[in-house]
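Residues determine shape. Next comes a sample protein:
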Amino acid sequence: MTRTQRPRPGRANLWRHRDFMKLWAAETVSQLGTQVAVLALPLAAIGPLHATPFEVGVLTTAEFLPFILVGVSRRRMGGPAPPSADPDRG
């Protein structure tokens, strides 16, 4: 029979920490919004607007163009690309 490990009395539990819960909830909502936008924008263009595949491609490119331009401009100025606080986005 195996024993379940209980948290030590001196250890902090993140799920009970108010600031961590705020951060976790905000990040969850942010990721959900990002994923909905990535999916809904092309579907809205295809459905009601009757966009062609080329137009959907242009729309998707325009969605990520600011990230590309910021990275290229930083490289041209001689500095490294900015570190991302949220590396799994985009």
In short: Helices lie at 18-46, 53-76.
